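Typical record is below.
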Amino acid sequence: MKLHISIFQMPDGMHVATCAEIPMCQVLRHNKGHAMTDCKRMAARFLAEREREGRPFVPQIAEVDITAEMANEDVGPHQGPA
């Protein structure tokens, strides 16, 4: 299964790796390579657990346009897809 992992460096030098499709799959490491490896390992464990439980995982990800101005907009209850 192909998943997306984003990685960035914090101002303090630490690296954050996050798997977009898997909730709460995020690691913080001193080394960029370790962050990537550990994030992949965490995702693999999540997928293995779902498989053991017989719960298929079908990731969904949406690409959206976001602007800085949106930060000031009032966000009401989620209305579902447009």
